[in-house]
Write a structure and sequence with these properties.
heterodimer, A: 222 residues, alpha/beta, Methyltransferase, Methionine Synthase (B12-binding Domains), Chain A, domain 1, Rossmann fold, 2 domains, five-stranded parallel sheet, 5 strands, globular, B: 342 residues, TIM Barrel, eight-stranded parallel sheet, 48% helix
């Protein structure tokens, strides 16, 4: 593990210093690191390291979460084009905000985190109906539907996660497709994910990446 | 009978008459009170005023709101589409800023008071002022320059512009938002509002680092408020915590009221403020939806135990989801009225 590099890189992330973060990666490449090592031994563990601070350290804030995810995603995208063999993305995750919700920041952080973990993300955007979530999950043989909600009523409304659960039940797809929810209301009530019948929840966009990886393992393969 | 203004004035002077002031933010609930849909309810200022007066009378708390919904500010700046819901506040359905050109073209109305979108809030304020202006504080919701862009271009794009620039485009937008803020607050002030909730989640270290707060947020906060003054202004970061910035805000702006996040440590806030301003302890009203009476009383007791020592403490709620059972609102207020006695 490149602890020194990870630490320097995360320092740049905490400072939201894009130039410095890219320079650290450039220097690592110049010193002989392969593009695969950059992604899997620096970028991925660095993001995991950030998550250690979530909820415990006030200085890990929304701007830093966003910045970390976007920079990691941008670097990964650049590195992948130079991989010796293209990474195979097998698992699909469906992502969107619940019906009536137009707040896309959390969803975007999640998408960035999944990208570095080589998970294929189908981003349905904002204000997504329950039917669309399920139809797309079936179409892409996805194992996870991730629903982001910024407002209490869009998180708990009958056309949101509750309806996604109902549709999965009716289609007998609950073993294959798991549901994760996230967003502000869930941080204020840690039991709320149960009220909306989700399988789990994540405290923030960055930790959602790891929770989703775990959820994929629990889902029955298609 | 003691009025809300009397309770608040006493608190400012370090006294409690019969109990501490209570700010209970029932907004969308007004529709339920009048038996209207949320969309219909917010179509007329007289509906909002009538429901505000009725709900205050029914529950006995100390505040009145002139707020319809936060997206109204985007409407004042040209947003044409609000998405109404059956059980919560409407969402901005049309972002007026889609590219940098839209920032150049954004025009701030010279006179908010005569703007057609302000007509109904104005009608609401007129009724509230006439009916209860001498007895209860009338609150207005005004979004800070650092936070308003999220409503105009979406949080993603605003965060992108804020962090990655170009800085000159970011500052052009902030300049316009600050101009809007001061005109908006002034319009409310002229119409009779007495308490101005300065909504500034981007002035919380849950959103930006302390360094970014000092370098970016604070200069714009100073600019926002230097034009309209700080009289009646309440510092509010939505559900985001503010304890780490309180001292700096007092030192730089001299604000006299801090409306905490439910996630802030109340005792810590009191210690930071050290009698220099009022502190509102704010209940987690998301959990209030499902709490039992026992849980509600326990939480209210905990908050007062942390907040009452040293005085200058009052009670507040956050956004009060539409689906909170009425009996839970009553349980909460009964406990507050009990624990809030001198």
């Amino acid at each position: 593990m490149n602890m020194n590099l990870i630490s320097k890189y995360n320092e740049a992330i905490f400072d939201t210093d894009k130039k410095k973060a890219f320079q650290i990666i450039e220097d690592a490449l110049a010193s002989g690191k392969s593009v695969e090592e950059i992604v899997f031994e620096i970028i991925v563990p660095a993001l995991d390291h950030i998550m250690d601070y979530v909820g415990k350290n006030m200085d890990v804030n929304l701007a830093q979460h966003f910045f970390a995810s976007q920079i990691a995603s941008e670097i990964t995208e650049k590195m992948i084009t130079k991989f010796a063999s293209a990474p195979v993305k097998t698992e699909n995750v469906i992502l969107g905000t619940s019906q009536g919700d137009f707040h896309g920041l959390g969803k975007r952080i999640v998408a960035g985190c999944l990208k570095i973990h080589m998970i294929n993300t189908i981003d349905l955007g904002l204000n997504v109906t329950a039917e669309e979530f399920v139809e797309q999950a079936i179409l892409h043989k996805a194992n996870v539907i991730a629903i982001s909600s910024m407002m209490y009523h869009t998180a708990t409304g009958e056309n949101g996660c509750l309806r996604v659960r109902k549709l999965l039940q009716e289609s007998r797809l609950e073993d294959k497709i798991k549901i994760i929810v996230g967003g502000a209301p869930y941080r204020f009530d840690h039991k709320l994910y149960q009220t909306v019948h989700a399988d789990t929840w994540a405290e923030n966009g960055n930790s959602a990446g790891l929770v989703i990886l775990d959820l994929i393992k629990k889902a029955q393969p298609w | 009978m003691v009025t809300g203004i009397e309770r608040l004035t006493a608190l400012v002077n370090g006294n409690i008459i019969d109990r501490v002031p209570v700010f209970c933010n029932l907004i969308d609930q007004g529709a339920k009170e009048l038996g209207l849909s949320i969309k219909e309810y917010f179509s007329k200022g007289e509906y909002v005023a009538e429901a505000q007066l009725k709900m205050r009378e029914k529950y006995g708390y100390d505040s009145l709101w002139s707020l319809f919904y936060a997206g109204r500010e985007a409407e004042l700046l040209g947003c044409k589409k609000m998405i109404f819901s059956g059980n919560g506040p409407p969402n901005v359905g049309h972002m007026i800023i889609k590219n940098y050109e839209d920032i150049h073209n954004l025009r701030i109305p010279d006179d908010i008071t005569s703007h057609p979108v302000f007509e109904q809030p104005l009608a609401c304020l007129k009724i509230l002022k006439n009916e209860a202006g001498t007895k209860y504080p009338i609150c207005a919701y005004t979004t800070s320059s650092m936070t308003l862009p999220a409503m105009l271009m979406g949080m993603e794009k605003w965060m992108e512009l804020l962090l990655f620039g170009p800085a000159e485009i970011r500052d052009e937008l902030l300049e316009k938002c600050s101009d809007f803020f001061s005109k908006h607050l002034q319009a409310y002030k002229n119409a009779g509002a007495t308490v101005f909730v300065y909504a500034n989640p981007f002035g919380s270290t849950d959103f930006v680092s302390y360094k970014q707060f000092c370098d970016l947020s604070l200069p714009w906060m100073i600019k926002d408020l230097q034009q309209v003054g700080t009289e009646g202004v309440v510092y509010y970061c939505g559900s985001s915590r503010m304890n780490p910035v309180i001292d700096k805000v007092i030192e730089s702006l001299g604000l006299k009221t801090f409306y905490l996040s439910p996630m802030d440590d109340i005792a810590e806030a009191k210690s930071i403020i050290a009698g220099r301003a009022l502190t509102a302890g704010v209940i987690n009203d998301i959990e209030l939806v499902r709490w039992t009476k026992k849980e509600i009383v326990r939480e209210v007791r905990r908050m007062f135990k942390a907040g009452m020592p040293g005085g200058k403490f009052f009670f507040g709620t956050l956004v009060m989801p539409y689906t909170i059972p009425e009996e839970n609102i009553k349980y909460m207020l009964d406990a507050v009225y009990e624990f809030g006695k001198p």
